């Protein structure tokens, strides 16, 4: 794995920006919530992908201008805009990957779960349309609380008879990106080499970075472990507080989501060496959904990597036990919401 990460990084560096101007594949990507804080920079980053032939931007408002603006970038993909419920279905037709950053973000003092009441309904509506129009697409859920919105999506897809657990992903890449950055800073490592798996879920203590599995292998004092884990778990709140009411992480989130989209597209394109962490249906623990490292292939989740959970430190074992009740209740909350009769 470590060798393949390094080889991939080197390859990407060599190819550099030139790649953006040469079409290499022709996948269609839809972004639902494309005019938002995450949606806009994410659309820009995906517009730079040589693997994309069409970029469908959907939002309930303000998406026309975003699409007009982006369409002037001289990269191969065609940009189309779709506004409002009436155009939602068309935005999804023929799409290979659907990314969902629609919904409200946190303000200072809020937990991700405080967003549940609004975002649960938004995700439900959008997933119903995905089920009706592109049931075979990879679905990337960014809208919080991810710990609940992914189980909601799974239930809605089941109700529609099109649930494929291998193609439903909760995007937790930002936790990995943050862990990699903070560990590299703390241990003075070359950023490109650092890879920290993050397991569990995507809120507070359910975010569990496995520092003992950091590549390259590196040792931490107890104090460093404590400081790093707390910082990674609270990194979202760090941004929410710095933005002081103007939203949560958007740019780093767009970067992380674009990485996850690019990985998915490479997998769809036949690359057999694609690994990411993601919150998916899983049998790794007794919980029905769990974030861990996965292997992505043409058909979605090809394997859930169990080796990261072997040989955990005492600290990590305790943290894993501690996160389970919270994650379980977030999953149940999502399932109950989705099963509720109108
Ligand atoms: P934002 O408020 O800037 O943008 C949200 C966009 O969604 C807006 O353009 C809005 O018009 C649109 N929207 C609202 N209802 C919609 C609907 N029914 N259909 C389509 N679009 C709709 O919010 P931001 O900052 O972009 O965050 C979006 C979500 O991403 C939030 O729920 C936030 O908590 C979550 N998030 C997730 C992270 C992760 O790691 N998974 C990290 C950071 C944020």
Overview of the molecule:
GO terms for molecular function: L-malate dehydrogenase (NAD+) activity. Homodimer. Keywords: NAD, Oxidoreductase, Tricarboxylic acid cycle. It catalyses: (S)-malate + NAD(+) = oxaloacetate + NADH + H(+). Residues 28-170 form the Lactate/malate dehydrogenase N-terminal domain. A hairpin with a 2-residue loop joins strand 10 and strand 11. The radius of gyration is 19 Å and the shape is globular. With 342 residues, the chain is of the alpha/beta class. A six-stranded parallel β-sheet has the order 3-2-1-4-5-6, sandwiched between helices. Strands 9-10-11 form a three-stranded antiparallel β-sheet. Strands 7-8 form a two-stranded antiparallel ribbon. The model has no long low-confidence stretch (mean pLDDT 95). The termini are far apart. It has helices at 2-15, 39-47, 63-70, 85-92, 116-133, 146-159, 173-187, 222-243, 251-268, 314-339, and strands at 27-32, 52-59, 78-83, 97-100, 138-141, 168-170, 198-200, 207-209, 275-281, 289-297, 300-304. It contains ten helices and eleven strands. The site of 1,4-dihydronicotinamide adenine dinucleotide has 33 residues, from helix 5. Residues 32-33, 35-39, 59-61, 101-106, 115, 119, 122, 125-126, 142-144, 146, 171, 174, 202, 247-250, 253 line the site of 1,4-dihydronicotinamide adenine dinucleotide.
């Amino acid at each position: 794995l470590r060798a393949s990460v390094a080889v991939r990084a080197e390859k990407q560096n060599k190819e550099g920006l030139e790649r953006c101007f040469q079409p290499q594949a022709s996948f269609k990507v839809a972004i639902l919530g494309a005019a938002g804080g995450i949606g806009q920079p994410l659309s820009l980053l995906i517009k730079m992908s040589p693997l994309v032939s069409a970029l469908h931007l959907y939002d309930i408002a303000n998406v026309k201008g975003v699409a007009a603006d982006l369409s002037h970038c001289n990269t191969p993909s065609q940009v189309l805009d779709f506004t409002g419920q009436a155009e939602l279905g068309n935005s999804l037709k023929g799409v290979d990957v659907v990314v969902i950053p629609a919904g409200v973000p946190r303000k200072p003092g809020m937990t991700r779960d405080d967003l549940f009441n609004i975002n649960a309904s938004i995700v439900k509506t959008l997933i119903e349309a995905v089920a009706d129009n592109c049931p075979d697409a990879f679905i990337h859920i960014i809208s919080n609380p991810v710990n609940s919105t992914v189980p909601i999506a799974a239930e809605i897809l089941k109700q529609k008879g099109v649930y494929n657990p291998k193609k439903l992903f909760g995007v937790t890449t930002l936790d990995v990106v943050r862990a990699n950055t903070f560990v590299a800073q703390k241990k003075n490592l070359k950023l490109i080499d650092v890879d920290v798996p993050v397991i569990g879920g995507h809120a507070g203590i359910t975010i569990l970075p496995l520092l003992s599995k950091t590549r390259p292998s590196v040792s931490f004092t107890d104090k460093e472990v404590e400081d790093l884990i707390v910082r990674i778990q609270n990194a979202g709140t760090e941004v929410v507080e710095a933005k002081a009411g103007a939203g949560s992480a958007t740019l780093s989130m767009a970067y992380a989501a674009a990485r996850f989209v690019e990985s998915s597209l490479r997998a769809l394109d036949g690359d057999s060496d694609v690994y990411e962490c993601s919150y998916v249906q899983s049998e790794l623990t007794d919980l029905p959904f769990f974030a861990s490292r996965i292997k992505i292939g043409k058909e979605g989740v090809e394997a859930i990597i169990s080796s990261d959970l072997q040989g955990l430190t005492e600290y990590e074992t305790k943290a894993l036990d501690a996160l389970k009740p919270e994650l379980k209740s977030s999953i149940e909350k999502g399932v109950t919401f989705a099963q509720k009769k109108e």
